[in-house]
Amino acid sequence: LHFFASAFLAFLMRGNIIAAIFATFFGNPITFPIIAVSSVQLGHWLLGTGVDAVPARLILTAFTNAGGEIWSNILATFTGDPTQWGKLRHFYYGLFKPYFVGGIIPGLIVATVCYYVSLPIILGYQKLRQKRRRERAENLRERAAARLRARSSVDDGASGGS
Question: What is the pTM of this model?
Answer without folding.
Answer: 0.62
